[in-house]
Predict the structure.
Amino acid sequence: MPAYVIVDLQEIIDPEKLNAYRPFGAAAVQKYGGRYLARGGETISLEGGWTSQRIAILEFDTLEQARAWYESPEYVEARKVRDGASQTRIIAVAGVE
């Protein structure tokens, strides 16, 4: 069953640091079989006043694969590069069959 990771950058604090993170983050996503479905495109709030400076949605084959990506040595290092660049929330959700 597919799984989706939703990355919500609520506030970008250091754009240069965030830009430095991007190639590391993308490489880890690719290595662990993920793909971007949305990445930083225009957003509109439809309900609840949800505001975000940037949203990314990733797809993995399984929830376990999404967890393996997030906990991987490559992504742990990518997160260190991103540290302090933004206030970020990340969740993973199982898709439907």
